[in-house]
Amino acid sequence: MRKNRRRAARSYYGQCCLWSDLHRMGGSLKSGFALFAALLCLSAAVAAEEPQEQTFTEIQPDSDLVNPQKLIPLLERGDVRAMNNIGLLWARGVGTRAPDFGEALRWWKEAARRGYAVSMNNIGLLYANGQGVPQDYNEALKWWQLSAETGDAWAMNSIGDLHEHGQGVEQSYAQALEWYRRAARAGDGLAMYNVALFYENGHSVNADLKAAYDWYNRAADKGIASAMHNLGKMLEGGRGLPSDKVEAHAWLSVAQQYYTSEDADEAAANAGDLARLGPLLDSSERERSTQIARNLAARIEERRKAEQVKTGPGESET
Q1: What is the CA radius of gyration of the chain?
Q2: Backbone angles phi, psi at 13, to 5 degrees
Q3: pLDDT value for 108
Q4: How many helices, marked H, and strands, marked E, lie in the chain?
Q5: Contact (Cβ atoms closer than 8 angstroms) between residue 240 and residue 234
Q6: Range of the domain at 52
Q7: Residue-level pLDDT at 156
Q8: How many CB atoms are located within 10 Å of the residue 16 CB?
């Protein structure tokens, strides 16, 4: 199963107004932001409960970007992260009756005009999903290419997805793999997963299970649950390496911890594999599987934290 972020991002958009409009709201910038302050206070609780898509700027409760007293000065200084987050809040419909993707688009275009890749990605998603605009994969490709030119790995993976499925471009596994590799080299976990799939299935390359196993491991270290699941299945079936049902069970156990609510079907399938494989292990094997799973989870979290140290303030891992 391929992985991209377009499905997970379908609920991310909302309503807002342009910079110039703010000066006309009640005659002052601060009065214009009264509603935004209410939105941001509410967003802090939302952010604490719901994980954010990695590509978008994280909205943390203690961040300057959700502090009403600091948001206005940030916007006055032209802070692109603040602009992006306002678009994101309106896009989610936080504190509003309904999302308004058209207004979110206006905020993101302002941030994108200033060179902010995250907002370029958001705009591309609007066009790819047809939210607030007619669905247009060519327009999505344009925005993701602009983002990719800045070195954004998320955009590179998304361009690969378009090539893989012939959306806005001629279908080409070769072009898709090239973009997935570029994104993977730039550190994108889903791209690493996609490269692994291409090696496992022999798309545009000779099938190479050893290479697939290596790329799945890299994706797993980024917290990609589907990569962990596939590692478990490869180990269980002895595909590309000796069969090891204990380690297979361990990988499936770890994967179950990383699926999100949007991966319900995959999580259910993984749980079914765990339920089937578990009874095949004796007590000592189950104990060993538990220890292996604990070590794998610790390794994954350690490597993910090491990557987060490299990011800028208020920005995502990739």
Answers
A1: 21
A2: -110, 170
A3: 95
A4: 16, 0
A5: yes
A6: 1-150
A7: 97
A8: 26
CA distance 240 to 130: 41
27-70 pLDDT, tens per residue? Answer: 333 433 444 544 455 444 444 434 333 334 445 555 665 565 67
In contact, 155 and 144? CB cutoff 8 Å:
yes
Cα 232 to Cα 249: distance, rounded to the nearest angstrom? 6
Per the structure, how many domains does the chain have? 2
User: Read out DSSP for 78-101?
Assistant: T-HHHHHHHHHHHHHTTTSSS--H
pTM beyond 0.70: the answer is yes
Which residues neighbour 275 within 8 Å (Cβ) at sequence distance 6 or greater? Answer: none
Distance CA 127, CA 215 (A): 30
Tell me: do 256 and 128 sit in the same domain. no
First to last CA, the chain: 22
* Residue % of the chain over a pLDDT of 90: 63
Whether residue 135 is found in the same domain as residue 24: yes
Residues in the chain: 318
Spatial neighbors of 246 by CB under 8 A, at least 6 apart, are 281, 285, 288, 289, 292
Q: Which of 16-20, 85-89, 214-218, 277-281 has the lowest mean pLDDT?
A: 16-20
Q: What is the per-residue pLDDT for 64?
A: 60
38 and 134 both lie in a single domain: yes
Q: Are residues 2 and 138 in the same domain?
A: yes
289 Cβ contact list (under 8 Å, min separation 6)? 246, 247, 249, 250, 253, 281
